Amino acid sequence: MESIWQLVLLPFSLLCAVIPMVAFLGLVWWLDRYDREPIWLVLLTFAWGALGGVLFALLGSSLAMEPLAMAVGPEQAEQLAAVIIAPLVEEPTKAMILFVIMFSRYFDHAADGFVYGAAAGLGFGMTENFLYFTSMGSDPMTWFGMVVIRTFFSAVMHACATSCVGAVLGFARFRGWGAKLLALPMAFIPAMSIHALWNGLLTLDAYVTEWELSWFNFALFPLEVLLLFGIFQLAIWDERRLIRRELADEVQQGLLPLAHATAIAGYFSRKKRGWIPDGVPQDAYIKAATTLALRKHQCRYASQRAYPFYHDDVLRLRREIQGLLALAKR
Question: Ramachandran region of residue 279, left (φ > 0), alpha (ψ -120 to 50) or beta?
Fold first, then answer.
């Protein structure tokens, strides 16, 4: 009977592991309002978390368990693994891909880092959830409780932690080497702290019976999510400020009308109709102007080797905008 229930729950475990994480991924991508990342690169980052991140985490955890067991004993090592080994091993393995794509032309701001970091964390959470769901045995109620907790808490914790790494890397992307070197500890300290706090309170709850630490954990975690969401919104606001500043320079040079630059710098105003001449494709025009603003920022802080690409792309985008405005109906 138990094996039959496991077979029955297997497809539901797969669906419950995949669908919520993909939905959360779509929500995070959509929230990046002004310059949404290429969906193929977001999905690639998600896939890394689901496959590469999990694989390297399993290997790293198994290697780290041996010295910990030698230091404190096998039984205590098992108890400490979730609090010490998991944050120290899983956060770097999830974030490996961020250190690759941070040097791409698509990764240029803290808001981008939030999106890519969350994607890697959600992918990791998806695979980890599936492994947990399929190991819960044949009790449907126990399985359901695990699905709820891991979907809305544990997996989201992975996304929040890795989004911290991505945000710091995005902040340091176009700053000096001092900022880049400082970004390493500054990226992982909050990520590992979030991870260790979540795992630690759940672990202690089994030993400190007079306090309901698990309920405190469930109450505290939404506050952490809200805090990170607020920081994400600040990063998006800073991106808006950057777009407005760079396009103001284009207004002075006569490339854009002031009304266009003002509309493009606002999320709701850019969606309205009527501010752009008939015949000009609005989505293409907004995309070109937004990318121009970001490329100008990148060009200003790019390395000597990367500067020619960004400079040439600025010129190309200006020509594209001129061509789009020339389509206006007289």
Answer: left
What is the SS3 assignment for 302? coil
**Other residues' Cβ atoms within 10 Å of the Cβ of residue 212:** 12
Query: What is the chain's length?
Result: 330
Q: Are 60 and 134 in contact (CB under 8 A)?
A: no
- Cβ-based neighbour number of residue 249 at 10 Å: 13
DSSP characters for 77-145? HHHHIIIIIHHHHHHHHHHTTHHHHTTSTT--SHHHHHHHHHHHHHHHHHHHHHHHHTTSTT-HHHHHH
**CB-based contact 293:227 (threshold 8 Å):** no
pTM exceeds 0.85, yes or no = yes
Kindly report the number of other CB atoms within 10 A of residue 252's CB atom: 11
Nearest 5°: the CA angle 25, 163, 62 is: 95
Of 38, 41, 31, 37, nearest in space to 234 by CA: 31
Q: What is the rounded CA–CA span in Å between residue 228 and residue 101?
A: 22
Q: Break the chain into its structural domains and give their ranges.
A: 2-237, 253-325
- Answer whether residue 262 shows pLDDT above 90: yes
The secondary structure of 40-60, three-state, reads: HHHHHHHHHHHHHHHHHHHHH
**Helices 110-133 and 86-95, axial angle in degrees (round to 10):** 120
pLDDT in tens, 111-120: 999 999 999 9
At 123-175, the pLDDT tens digits run 999 999 999 998 876 678 888 999 999 999 999 999 999 999 999 999 988 77
**Ordered alpha helix ranges (H), the chain:** 2-31, 39-48, 54-72, 74-80, 86-95, 98-101, 110-133, 140-149, 155-172, 177-205, 213-252, 258-264, 267-271, 282-301, 307-325
Q: Which amino acid is at 121?
A: G
Residue type, 219: A
Region at 66 (left for phi over 0; alpha for psi -120 to 50; beta for the rest): alpha
Dist. CA 330–CA 315, nearest whole Å: 26
